[in-house]
Amino acid sequence: MERVLIILSNFPAAYDIAGLLRELLEQHLVACGNILPAVQSPYRWQGAIESAMESTLVLKTSAGRYAEVQAALLAAHPYAVPEILAMPVVDGLPAYLTWVQEETRKDVDV
Question: How far apart are CA 89 and CA 13, in angstroms?
Answer without folding.
Answer: 27
